[in-house]
Amino acid sequence: MTTKLFGERVQRREDARLITGQGRFLDDLGANALAAAFVRSPHAHARIRDVDVSAALDVEGLVAIYTWEDLPGLLAEPLPLLIPHPALTHGRTGHALARDIVRHVGEPVVMVVAADRYVAEDACSLIEVDYEILKPVVGVEEAAEAVNLVHADVPGNVGAHLVQEVPSPDGLSAREAIEAAPHTLAFRLDIERSASMPLEGKGVYARWDADDQSLRVYSSTQTSTSVRMAVAAKLGLPLPKVEVVAPDVGGGFGVKIVHPWPEEILVPWAARLLDREVKWTEDRREHFISSAHERAQVHHVRVGFDDDGRVLGLDVNILHDHGAYTPYGIIVPIITSTQLVGPYKIGAYRVEFSSIYTNTVQVTPYRGAGRPQGVFCMERTMDRIAAHLGLDRTEVRTANFIQPGEFPYDQGMTFQDGRPLIYDSGDYPESLRMLKELIGWDSFPAMKAEAAAEGRAIGIGVGCYVEGTGVGPYEGGHVQITSDGRVHVSTGLTSQGQGHETVFAQIAATELGVPIEKVSVVTGDTRRFGYAVGTFASRAAVMSGNAIALACRKVRDKALKVAADALEADPRDLEITDGVVHVAGTPSASIPLATVAVLSNPLRYAFDKETQRATQFAGAQDDDRPPVADGEEPGMEGKDYYSPIRSTFASGMHAAIVETDPLTAEIKILRYVVVHDCGKLINPMIVEGQIHGGVGQGVGGALYEKMVYDEHGQLLNASFMDFLMPYATEVPRIETAHLETPSPLNPLGVKGAGEAGVIPVSAVIAAAIEDAEGITIDRMPISPSDLYSLRAETRLRKIQ
Amino acid sequence: MKPPPFDYHRPAGLGEALQALAEAGSHGKVLAGGQSLIPLLNMRLAAPGHLVDINGLTELATISADASGVRVGALARHAAVERDGSARAVQPLLAQALALVAHPVIRNRGTVVGSLVHADPSAEMPAVLALLGGSVRLARLGGERDVHARDFFVGPLESACLPGEMAVSAFFPALPERSGTAFCEVARRHGDYAVAGVAAAVTLDEDFRIIAARVACVSVGPVPVVVDVTGVCGQRPPASVDWDEVARAVQDRIEPEGDIHATAGYRRHLTGVLVTRALRGAAQDAARSGANDAGEGRA
Amino acid sequence: MSERTGEHRHAITLTVNGVLREAAVPARRLLSDCLRHDLGLTGTHVGCEHGVCGACTVLLDGEPVRSCLTFAVTVDGHEITTVEGLAERGELSPVQRAFSECHGLQCGFCTPGFLCTVTAFLRDNRTPTDEEVLEAVSGNLCRCTGYQNIIKAVHRAAEIQAEESG
Question: Where is the 2Fe-2S ferredoxin-type domain (chain C) (predicted)?
């Protein structure tokens, strides 16, 4: 092999266009498209009495106005419930345009199409909707009391209720184990709402080709293949007549896996109806109030443990705020419930959640997807146990770790992919050892005492997690070597900045023995690859990476066979180096892959000098064999799929040192350290980038970001002024180290890395603040004002 | 998020601008840097019928400093004032405060006078003007008037600038010798509007005892809250001042409210902390400037 | 935006990336939209339209400004540099190269704003300290990178700049 590309810090191939302004994001397309804008509900809960569009009709440049009444057939039906689950007994989804009732501020009511977005907004501002205001349901605990209902036909506002129970090895239930334990603790933990908040909002651009009766849709989505199926179904078009392309996408972080968004079916529908190109580019306010949020949950924890801090029983009850609808099912609370146990052997475990409707924006996965909440529960529990027993916090964790020799380890639950929660590999003790060394855990008490002597308060915290990555059902890869020697790789899942073009090219170049410059990669374009699931759950490298590797291996085998014929050699003696097939040890006996590609496709018609070699009079042929042998296909291409039996489990541990200002209560992260295990690294530079970004978002979730609703269901901070995403000045330097325990489940030995960075941050920062302040931290995020209030409450309690 | 339509005026001179504003009356608005106005337009929270764009009136982009103070024209950008050496020398508080105004890129475009007219009680520049007892010059067709800071800030986002009037300049007085200033604030993120902030000015006598001390507090009332604490400081050297008592005196005068970023109680507490920090900083600054003056005198 | 909407249009002339460009725009057309949709320079991105994210930052007469908080008509007659104009004679600028080399971008949506901001910053401050670098990029949001490699890239760009001018 020319160069070993797998595992190297290969520079990104995406960058050239992105640093020169040549990227193509959704709103960069369709220069002549009409613009869509929406009248959205200003009320959290209301009945639509009347929509009066008359004042808008005079707006010059107006093309069309649509309400629910205008929608034909399936378009008028509720949006799909993407992931049904038996426990989701009362799943509800919205309509593309609101029908009768609106259930959150921002729900689309009227669609306007006009010459440009300015004019479309002018028309929107002139449309009058008469609402009968209904009582809003805000706050998950208020919603659970069910004084008012979000959906009249959902009693108690409960969409789903699920219990998973894992008895202890000796057959005790969690509650029995807790009763029998030498020590028990019970407490409540809260996490507030945040959101994915990619810098590019959503967007859809559709072109109807009336001559061809076909539709092309561009969407800033994490799943173009599924959008395609949804659009074809909703519009009643034959699937082959619909193409969906995810262009460059300016970040996703979960929110763009949800589909079809109302706009994703309305824009193509309008484009077809009007026979005009139509585009909708979501603006920031729309993204705040009409996409999706995540994280808000209330957890009640009971734990029983022994003198060494070993957990004997754990009982967690979760109230999950689902917002107004459940298009993505109950994936988030399922992930919290199952991933909560982390790297630990929990004696007996019971977890119960209720998924509750509120009149707020719907909740769907945001990077981490329920794991940050689960890890917050488990790690805060570990810290409480340590505090109760007077033990070092890392000792308690060590006492509970699954040991390296215990894999595969069955946690006894059903994971988010409907498959058993069995960890495939990991080395948690080594990970913790590395982390303690990096952060200087053992020398910290001295450092803390020194700081205290100067009147400074510092604290240290640690957090561990296990992350199921690479969930199925499958992804595919297609690889084609053309007669010019170029390698064309495609896969159906989409990219939002993860560097797939680079890492998939690394995999293909390594597998095929070609220079990476010869390899091009296309993702998220249904014209190139029609079967796919999407990019979420840290799955792209695992799923498409392995599928592409398998497809490459097929192509390689075929290439060697064709080359062996040409070189009159045994395929087993052949190697491919730098795009040339040669006999091992005899470099002169060789043939370029380009020529192999030519020979693989028997031609009647040559199109250049090189391809004359493959025509029917060109040379020796076996007259007893058809030009394309049985079981063979012409062309040097191959396709394969990777469908894992279950997820592969990455893991990691973070530690932080924070300083809290004794006067202003400002919180500063002095150090942040990550030990990360995602199996074999394809490109360490990119993996580190993913970790950095995750930690950055985690810092946002821990110290800055929350969605604040008032009692009327109005989102009070629907702007970047008041929803505080961290700037460079708020994110500390992040130190990283890698541990590689390869996954035995897939050919490349890789595990997912996309979400890891964000998962334990709230737990870690909470622990560090608690250590600095000596005040229990049981809800996140925390602001200086919150910390100030906590100090005051603590002082008051001490006086009392 | 696109602005609503408006009639656009691009006057060739101040007279034309005032003419346009006079005709537009309460529907008119001046566009200078636009860093506060355009977000409001984009969100359609404001819809003035007429915008009078003064960006072509370069004669208003003036910064002139003399011993009495600094006069800043309506088109002087934050960044220009921040960098202006003579303005910095005459009234150092300008640069101290400007460094805290949003982010450098916003300061490249935003104007000092625009920030004053916007009259956000969380913003730094109104507090600076209020602390220094400066004034804003309002011109209208056929006349102009100077409005003292204490009368200029009327309420949250409300100034004394009337329909048909345009703020053409602001005057930031210099301080007496042996004076010092400081601006301390706490923001949620670097560059955000302050949760609480305090501008302070201190003047010392020849024996380095405090003879004047004032603070202006942001984000704790409908307008910048100016408190003269000279009496509480009690003509003592800074080291002998009971700063807690000074902080309490200021805390008694502010009217903080809670919002999504901070409780009223935290703002009150924080203002107390920042009052002490800012006044001590200003006193140190004053002592330095006094020592320099003395040094120069000897030379 | 090719379609007439009946609104009064102002003829403006901008020098964009060294090229004289003309457009007829309504007064309310934001500079960001003018660049992207009237002039077809879609490299400048729009992330919030209220001046907080910095994705739309361009250079106006050499100084970085938010193009979403500027009306196109206001800057009639002025010079604009966008991300498309940072490479000179087809050669990537030190800032562009450093961002790629240091993996200072992921999705690339915020990147044009960072590149323009940093280009002006390093022109005025060729040997910045850590604090100055942090302050310089403190008004630009990135949701992907956690800023680690962006900071690294700014320092690296200063280094490249020094090497190449030295």
Answer: 10-86
